[in-house]
Structures are given as C-alpha cells and as structure tokens.
Write a structure and sequence with these properties.
With 148 residues, the protein is an alpha/beta fold. The chain has one domain: 3-Layer(aba) Sandwich (Rossmann fold), CATH 3.40.50.9100. It is 29% helix and 19% strand. Strands 2-1-3-4-5 form a five-stranded parallel sheet, sandwiched between helices. β3, α4 and β4 form a beta-alpha-beta unit.
C-alpha cells in the first residue's frame, strides 16, 4: 500500500520558518516518525512551491493501475497558502479518485482573515487543522482507518 504526502509552498522550510507557528520539526523528522510508526506502508513524499506540480501529483493516483504498480490508498495534502487561493487545486482534489486528507499545521480559524477559509475543505475526505506537525500522523491514521 502506498500513501502520498504532498506539501505545498514554503513547507520545505518546516522547522526553520516561523517555529512559533509551525513548530521546530523538519519534514525529514516528521517523515521518519511516520515511517517508524507504519513500517509496512510505502510513503512517497513530494514538496513543491509550484501549484501545477501539486495538481499533477494529485492527478496521478488511480484505482486501476497497470500490472506491477502499487495502489495508492490516499493522499495527505498540506497545500500551504494554495489552500486559501487555488480553485484549480480544489478542482484537482475534487476529481481525485482516492481520498485526500487536508492538513493545516496551524489553526487557520485563528489566523489572519485571508487564511481562515480553505477552498479544499469541502472536497477533501477529512481535514485536520491546528494539530501541529502531529496532524500528518493523524491524516495517515485516518487513511488507514486507525485511531490516534
């Protein structure tokens, strides 16, 4: 089983950028914790500061795969600032054939007004907001139908 973990703009700076908001863990640390917790799951991590890359990656998984390809169980998506601005990304998530779980490290409902609405929430299978970097593990657990 494979789970994609996709991060959007500026999330390559996790652990360095605004640690008071986003914490001090790097994405490498977060991924290590996830892989240790679920060693039998194949995780694919990708990050881009470019909207089109995220859309392309979301459009890749399909339930009908060529022989020998590993099925994608779902996507963990932290779209960063694109959560609040990208109709195109919303459309890609809405059309995605596997469940997408939205993650926001900070509580967007308590941030600046322009960050308080996510265009993705209505088309994602589940949203995890304001749980810090632990939200990534909660998203994986949701996709695996496990309790955290």
């Amino acid at each position: 089983m494979k789970i994609l973990i996709l991060n959007g703009p500026n999330l390559n700076r996790l652990g360095l950028r605004k640690p008071e908001v986003y914490g001090t863990k790097s994405m490498a640390q977060i991924l290590l914790e996830i892989q240790q917790r679920w060693p039998d799951v194949h995780f694919v991590y990708r990050q881009s500061n470019h909207e089109g890359d995220l859309i392309d990656w979301i459009q890749e998984p399909t339930p009908t795969l060529p022989q020998g390809k590993e099925p994608v169980a779902g996507i963990v998506l932290n779209a960063g600032g694109y959560s609040h601005t990208s109709v195109a990304l919303r459309d890609a998530v809405e059309e995605c054939e596997v469940p997408v779980v939205e993650v926001h490290i900070s509580d967007i409902t308590k941030r600046e007004p322009f960050r308080q609405t996510s265009l993705l929430t209505g088309v994602c299978a589940h949203s995890i907001i304001g749980k810090g970097t632990d939200g990534y593990q909660e998203a994986v657990a949701y996709l695996l139908n496990q309790q955290i």
